């Protein structure tokens, strides 16, 4: 069982202050910013009426915005494709998370669980890569780095648990145990994923130049509003990293 700290002693502001972006990442994209949001006192569980409403509204707005046009031409998604290419990833094979979601619009967005559905709705509605991590399985500070290549990444293949390693130079989020998200925002590990038992989480909203700080704040505000509606007793904290932050 992994644990960051005891619930009674966790200091959200101090933990957020410990998060870092390696200068080698900012050298790739000086325009990158990450809005980190912690939430304690969440009410997890399966998809429900609230998460369905949020996803359905996001689907409707996205279909109106994109129609039958190519989602990858949206300025923010195009910038993310450039960012992936900058560290050697092929975005047509490993797509930025927001693009991967938007490409599923015609068939309908996945319904996973109420917390994941909430952040997916914000991701689609604001065209922003957005992920969530279970803080009870996160060890130490969150760091965005260029991988050495020996970091462990716990995932599944063919329904079985496997351990992979990012490529050297790949941009990854990591903690003291290993990589928690590969290729910036492409895929999260199984160790820290949100589940029906998650009551404390950290959310990462990824922005590049085409999304200014006002738009990034609007996405964060909507996520915090949705989390508060879903979990009325939730305690939320946030920090902006990168850029001029």
TrEMBL record:
<dbReference type="InterPro" id="IPR005146">
    <property type="entry name" value="B3/B4_tRNA-bd"/>
</dbReference>
<feature type="domain" description="B3/B4 tRNA-binding">
    <location>
        <begin position="78"/>
        <end position="232"/>
    </location>
</feature>
<protein>
    <submittedName>
        <fullName>B3/4 domain-containing protein</fullName>
    </submittedName>
</protein>
<dbReference type="InterPro" id="IPR020825">
    <property type="entry name" value="Phe-tRNA_synthase-like_B3/B4"/>
</dbReference>
<dbReference type="Pfam" id="PF03483">
    <property type="entry name" value="B3_4"/>
</dbReference>
